[in-house]
Amino acid sequence: MNIIRKKGGARYLNLQEPEKPRLYRDLFPYTSICRTTFDNILLAPRPSDKMYVTDTTFRDGQQARPPYTVKQVLKIYDFLYRLGGKTGLIAASEFFIYSPKDRKCVDACRARAYPFPKVTSWIRATKDDLKLVRDMEFDETGMLTSVSDYHIFLKLNKTRKQAMDMYVDLAARALDWGIIPRCHFEDVTRADIYGFCLPLAQRLMELSRQSGMPVKIRLCDTMGYGVPWPGAALPRSVQRIVQTFIDEADVPGEWLEWHGHNDFHKVLVNGITAWLYGCGAVNGTLLGFGERTGNAPLEALLIEYISLTGDDGAADTTVISELAEYFEKELHYHIPHNYPFAGRDFNSTSAGVHVDGLEKNEEIYNIFDTKHLLNRPVPITITDKTGRSGVAYWLNTNLRLTEDKKVTKKHPAVGRIYDAIIAQYEGSNRTTSFSYEEMEDLAQRFMPELFATEFDHVKQLAGELAAQLIIRLAQHKDLLDFDASALARLDSFAEEYSFIQYLYLTDTRGRLKCATITDPQYKEKYQALPLDYDFSAREWFKIPMQTGELHIMDVYQSQFTGKLVITVSCAVTNDQDDIVGVIGVDIQLEQLIKRAKALRKEVGTQDENDI
Fold it and tell me: What is the number of other CB atoms lying within 10 angstroms of the CB of residue 291?
């Protein structure tokens, strides 16, 4: 038997128009910690028939970190699809649309043609912004709809009626254009719920009924003031906010979203509370990136969804580990080692009694089968009982050694590391296990070949930056005829990038056809390389001729200048993709590194143009 529940919208709620802003100074004294009050109204959980996740990694998430390039956005969007988009659990992702780069991100993700996450936009509450949405043919957009008097009076300098009319007019225009408005009720946990928010929601629902289209509402806990506690009073109670919108304003739960912030460490529990009390969607970002303290971690929302529903197939949780590796290696973001599900040591333990338990059965101290669900085996903890096999396992697992570099217990260095460990226990009566950092120090001491040096990182960076530039130079048609226009192109390029020492172009026989030397003091020395000089035996020439691909040589000392240089070369091809020559460039390492930051930005911009 189904319980008959009260239908919403039984009474019309009037807009209250105070002369002064209602700032709830009893709850938000500003010079003191905010207060939580209770009126002891207890509600029963009442989840929406459908619960799902929405993503704001590319909108709110980008406001907390250096902007992603278009390539990075596309890669992360692919991750979102694999993580939960395939099943529709991650239902949508929102994007800025203001800059040319923003629009390229949208176009690139749309070209994937994934049904989910649906690509949606976010705009300010202006007609000009809405025209952008229409021109880009979105069928849904988020709209900034600030609802607290802090925003209406103190920021917008409007009355409540003026703000309401502005929001309703914009939503009506969106509906007229066939666009579903998603009204972001900004700062809802400091707003007058009955005096402004619910009357506004009722007017929006009336628009929905008239148009036959949904009008969604995102409940934005902008400052993280929301609380999940039973019996807490409005406007801070997450439970009460969600259910009053459903019961009083007749907003269907599936049209409601919760968007939280972590200012008071409640972003995840508040989001789950919103789900449990009727909110259809919870909005989050990958790894919790977001303004100030961040948003709900999207990967944590997926784990909680599976926990609540038992639907193990709703998300591919192994993708979380791939995401973490991508953010650390490609985006150079340091994930805290103890960060749940993604941190290096999140499923590791070092307390002696816990180590003993893990050795007997990993289930005693592992939250779930992390190898199966996250592709993350339980890290072995090193003690005097570990043995050489354990040391080899630690090295292979924690240093993520590829198959060709994995070691066994018979490796001499493994034996030396094991001896150093035993010496600690026998010589100083040690009783604690070895930390990751201690093991890494031992590995660097006895197996330095496994680690990249700072110089290695510099070489990699130099090669990557130089490669992007030389590839674009090789695509210029001016180079195809080896004439004056080719030389002019080389001169122009070298003048723009002062770290270039020598720039040269050969034909398919390796004969030098034109070249430019940037520093006049070295021109006399380079006379040893006249036009038609034979470079056919050089590595930088042979590899591109054999493969048609870019080639980056190792760092060496130039015989002409004595500087450390890196040579990058690339095949020059015609419209039929036939190789007509090879272009090479000798780059002074020190000078390139000095311009690394600016070059990264330039290369990123050029990547976006390519996409």
Answer: 14
DSSP 170-214: HHHHHHHTT-EEEEEEETGGGS-IIIIIHHHHHHHHHHHHHHTS-
What's the whole-number mean pLDDT along residues 566-588?
90
Query: Tokens 């400091």 label which residue?
Result: 190
Instruction: Quote the DSSP letter at residue 521.
Output: G
Q: Are strands 216-221 and 90-95 parallel, antiparallel or unpaired?
A: unpaired
* Contact between 91 and 118 (Cβ < 8 Å): yes
Question: Which structure tokens are listed for 338?
Answer: 């103890």
- Alpha-carbon gap, residue 314 to 51, rounded angstroms: 11
Name which of 36, 560, 62 is nearest 285 in CA terms.
Answer: 62
What are the two backbone dihedrals, phi and then psi, of residue 90, each rounded to the nearest 5 degrees?
-90, 100
In the 8-state DSSP scheme, what is residue 19? S
What sign results for the dihedral spanned by CA atoms 107, 111, 112, 115?
positive
pLDDT tens-digit readout, 240-266: 999 999 999 999 999 999 999 999 999
Read off the amino acid at residue 21.
P
Residue where the block lists tokens 């650390």 = 328
Backbone angles phi, psi at 285, to 5 degrees: -135, 155
User: What digits encode the pLDDT tens for the residues 102-147?
Assistant: 999 999 999 999 999 999 999 999 999 999 999 999 999 999 999 9
Has domain 455-610 been given CATH number 3.30.450.20? yes
Q: In the numeric block, which tokens belong to residue 450?
A: 């496994």
One-letter amino acid identity for 579?
Answer: I
3-state secondary structure 288-317: HCCCCCCCEEHHHHHHHHHHHHCCHHHCCC
DSSP string for 98-109: SSHHHHHHHHHH
The answer to whether the beta carbons of residues 583 and 474 sit under 8 Å apart is yes
Residue 580 tokens read as 């007509």
Reported CATH class of domain 52-329: alpha beta
Please, what's the largest Cα pairwise distance for the chain?
A: 96
Sign of the C-alpha dihedral computed for residues 311, 315, 316 and 321 taken in this order? negative
- DSSP H/E element including 416: helix 412-428
Angle, alpha carbons 146-148-152 (nearest 5°): 65
Backbone angles phi, psi at 479, to 5 degrees: -80, -15
Question: Structural domain boundaries of the chain?
Answer: 52-329, 379-450, 455-610
**Bridge partners (DSSP) listed for residue 396:** none
427: helix, strand or coil: helix
C-alpha distance across the termini of the chain, in Å: 56
